[in-house]
Design brief:
14 strands, binds adenosine-5'-triphosphate, 52% helix, 5-stranded mixed β-sheet, 5-stranded antiparallel β-sheet, alpha+beta, Helix Hairpins, binds magnesium ion, Heat Shock Protein 90, Beta-Lactamase
């Protein structure tokens, strides 16, 4: 089936099609109703004719006679559109006068038993005719006389034609007028849409100001309202993106300028031993840049995973956390920190993307170790009931109450906890947690010492 794309054409067709169907049905009804009334009228005239003719049937000496002068008969039969026929026959005499060939055999006249006028349809010389017969018994005779008058149907057909045309032509004209009017009105109604299209096509890509919704119909106002909402979101996203790029550039500036200074210093030195401190600083700067780069990539990866609706697969949370903790043990020992993991001895199944989930854990464990003093402890606990809850608790520097929410913002860092880092770790944690529909709770540790991060899994998240 052809799908009509044009709204204008579709509206027009939806209007014209039922209207045309209505006219066709109306024409059929008109035809049959008109036909009925025309037939009734002409049948009555035919009855008048047969009655007047019957009055001329007399009896003479007990015998039926029909004595009408030919000139009177010519007047009776005169008609410039139709031909009129008649026949007079009696029970005793048989054919008396008129047109012998009128065949009215379809009425029961032969036994002269008619009690009321009998109409019939027949043919004469291959032309359709309509006739009527009556039976009379002239005075002074016992003979029964059948008087028949018939005529061709030209007048009837002409009248039906005229009436039908008189009904249909105005209806067709009406449809044409309605169609033209609707075409004009639809075009006028759609003008605001054309204006909006033009306005949008002329806009510069930087122009995200709201579209004006004055002088537009309410239906289009809804569309403009939705577009303005979208533009507002785009404006917000662009501001965030601009700030993000500025922050990233700012984060790069420190290690890059350090890199430049140390490289210049190295160039001025001849002795490899003298170069060593500068080279160590160069390595640290490169490490910082590499770290920033990998954090930025991870953020982009988790954003992409959200947008692409990646499939969440079953993961054994217990096994995954245990493995990750083991990987972090050497780093913790290096910092003289005791890392412990406590969990029930059962597998805890959840649905997720394993690589992203590992990244989330890495960032949280990294923070717990990095922002703790030596000789302290980091506890990782996994509970299964009533829903899986994973807590990572340390007894380190802690986060002030007022900043507990802010640390999830991109590039947000707490000045007093000065350690290497670019402020993206918790933003990555938040993105991944949102993707897995995990609630992240950040609070101060026991006795307001250290930090406790809880990951509360949705019970429907279990696979
Ligand atoms: N367990 C914690 N104890 C104390 N402070 C923390 C802890 N976790 C995070 N913070 C503070 O929150 C800030 C943001 O943490 P986040 O992990 O987002 O960035 P980062 O660690 O500075 O850099 P990176 O992107 O390398 O992780 C950190 O700078 C730190 O000051
Ligand atoms: Mg971090």
């Amino acid at each position: 089936m052809i799908k009509i794309q044009s709204l204008k054409l579709r509206l027009l067709l939806h209007l014209i099609f039922p209207l045309t169907s209505l006219v066709i049905v109306n024409s059929f009804i008109s035809y049959y109703v008109t036909m009925h009334y025309v037939n009734t009228t002409y049948d009555n005239w035919l009855l008048d004719s047969v009655t007047s003719l019957a009055q001329e049937v007399k009896s003479k000496e007990g015998k039926v006679v029909f004595e009408v002068p030919p000139s009177a008969l010519r007047i009776f039969q005169w008609d410039d559109i139709d031909r009129t026929f008649f026949k007079i026959e009696s029970q005793q005499v048989g054919f008396i006068a008129g047109d012998k060939f009128i065949s009215n055999s379809n009425i029961a006249n032969k036994d002269f038993t008619l009690t009321s006028p009998a109409y019939f349809d027949s043919e004469i010389h291959h032309k359709k005719i309509r006739g009527v017969s009556i039976i009379i018994t002239p005075k002074d005779t016992s003979d029964k006389v059948l008087v028949t008058v018939a005529e061709t149907l030209n007048k009837r057909h002409n009248m039906v034609k005229h009436i039908i045309f008189a009904v249909i032509i105005p209806e067709i004209l009406l449809i044409l007028i309605i169609g033209l009017y609707m075409r004009f009105e639809i075009k006028r109604g759609l003008t605001p849409l054309y204006t909006l299209t033009q306005e949008l096509s002329q806009r510069s890509p930087q122009d995200l100001t709201p579209i004006s919704n004055t002088h537009v119909p309410s239906e289009i106002r809804i569309l403009i309202h939705t577009m303005n909402n979208l533009l507002a979101k785009l404006r917000k996203t662009m501001v965030i993106q601009k700030a993000f790029i500025e922050n990233a550039a700012h984060q790069l500036r420190t290690p890059l300028s350090g890199l430049k200074i140390q490289a210049e210093r190295v160039l001025r030195l001849n002795n490899l031993q003298e170069m060593e401190p500068a080279l160590i600083k160069i390595k640290n700067s490169v490490d910082q840049i590499a770290h920033l780069n990998s954090q930025l990539l991870m953020l982009a990866q988790s954003e992409a995973a959200i947008e692409s609706n990646n499939k969440l697969l079953p993961i054994d949370l217990n096994h995954l956390v245990r493995e990750t903790c083991i990987e972090w043990v050497p780093y913790a020992l290096k910092h003289n920190i005791e890392l412990s993991f406590d969990s029930p001895s059962m597998s805890i199944q959840i649905r997720g993307i394993e690589t992203l989930f590992r990244e989330l854990l890495n960032n949280l464990i990294d923070n717990a170790i990095r922002y703790s003093q030596q000789q302290s402890r980091v506890w990782i606990t996994l509970e299964a009931i009533p829903q899986p809850i994973l807590t990572i608790e340390d007894e380190g520097y802690g986060i002030p109450e007022s900043e507990l929410d802010k640390v999830f913002d991109r590039f947000y860092r707490i000045s007093r906890n000065q350690q290497d880092g670019c402020g993206l770790g918790l933003a990555i944690v938040k993105e991944i947690a949102d993707l897995h529909r995990i609630q992240v709770k950040m609070e101060q540790g026991k006795n307001s010492k250290g930090t406790k991060v809880s990951l509360i899994f949705n019970s429907s998240q279990r696979s």
